[in-house]
Amino acid sequence: MDSLLANEPLIRLAVFAGVLALMAGLEALFPRRQRAAGRWLRWPNNLGVVVVDSLIVRILFPTAAVGIALAMEGRGVGLLPWLGMPQPLAILLAIVVLDFAIYLQHVMFHAVPLLWRLHRMHHADLDFDVTTGLRFHPVEIVLSMVIKLMVVVALGAPAVAVLIFEVLLNATAMFNHANLRLPGWLDRALRLVLVTPDMHRVHHSVVPRETNSNFGFNLAIWDRIFGTYRAQPAAGHDAMTIGIQQFRDPRELRLDRMLTQPLREDDRAYPLGRREGAS
């Protein structure tokens, strides 16, 4: 465990690069949909967001969530140490609870109009592929980190559980955003446990009631429990439109336009609880 934590940056980078390369290769071999926008515009800008996000997080949170968990270990702080459960069970429970927290956070970023202004940058991509899973506004990333740190401290989550969760979350986000065609039987089996590309693609539909469904990033169970699961898009995966109505101009795919997007007017149709076409 100690060696795992000591090599945290290398582990993160290796998993990130490996999964990104794997998903990009599989997308090329087994594409699910014909692309609406070219890689040459989208990929450099989407990956540029990753660079900006990573720099800001390292500056504001030098030790990040794993560092906070390490600092708390042995002090008896949090729910899991208080329960005194065995380490393997504490690790598993921490991963599941952290995943549930991410689900709730995702719902919140759709439900609160001010937070939706930040999150909609993720949805404004005109296509859906592995790089879409990396495209989040820096302010959303900072707020997400604050929420995650609060959950880690409240749980007293083991540091190794936090590392495993963050690596899994990053990897599954790239997987379930991939433009990847899975055999129908495999998709049906996997989505009983994990969020698959076909399941999450519904969430990126231009139709608000579909955008406000399938909030899970890793485990698929939360959407089923809380009634936010939608099996398929109404138009079908091949005909559905990706993105949101407000930002259809390809210029909005540029990094500078993405970063300033929260400052622009909201059409009010998408936040959870609003009716389609509401003004």
TrEMBL record:
It is found in: Membrane. The chain crosses the membrane at residues 12-30, 50-71, 91-116, 145-169. Its EC number is 1.-.-.-. It comes from the Bacteria. GO terms for molecular function: oxidoreductase activity. InterPro entries: Fatty_acid_hydroxylase, Sterol_Desaturase_Related. This is Sterol desaturase family protein.
